[in-house]
């Protein structure tokens, strides 16, 4: 048993048929195009991760560090008084 019930011989036959239909030159160009697309995708994901970490808003230090909104800050001060 191979992958999902497909034997090695069935995979070999499919590979031979694909080679006969497309030819080795076209498969080579498809493989290189696919490889460059994957490389470009990885590069874009890496630069996007770097960009989002640099663009993240910096949290300002305040006297009430738990308050995220001004309304919460007012409520917290009124409760503590």
Describe what this molecule looks like in 3D.
- This protein has 81 residues and is an all-alpha fold.
- Helices cover 72% and strands 0% of the residues.
- The chain has helices spanning 8-22, 24-55, 70-80.
- The model has no long low-confidence stretch (mean pLDDT 76).
C-alpha Rg (nearest Å): 29 Å
Going by helix content, strand content and strand pairing, the class is mainly alpha
Q: DSSP strand (E) fraction?
A: under 5%
> Which segments are poorly predicted (pLDDT under 50) over 5 or more consecutive residues?
none
* Most strands sheet: none
| Average pLDDT reading | 76
The geometry reads as elongated
Give the helix tally: 3
Q: What is the tally of beta strands?
A: 0
Distance between the termini: 74 Å
Summarize, please.
This protein has 81 residues and is mostly helical.
Architecture blueprint of SSEs:
Layout: H1 8-22, H2 24-55, H3 70-80
List descriptors:
72% helix; 0% strand; 81 residues; mainly alpha
């Amino acid at each position: 048993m191979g992958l999902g019930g497909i034997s090695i011989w069935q995979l070999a036959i499919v590979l031979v048929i694909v080679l006969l239909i497309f030819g080795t030159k076209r498969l080579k160009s498809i493989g290189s195009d696919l490889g460059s697309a994957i490389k470009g995708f990885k590069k874009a994901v890496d630069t996007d991760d770097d960009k989002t970490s640099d663009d993240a808003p910096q949290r300002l230090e305040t006297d009430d560090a738990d308050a995220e909104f001004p309304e919460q800050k007012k409520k917290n001060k009124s409760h503590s008084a």
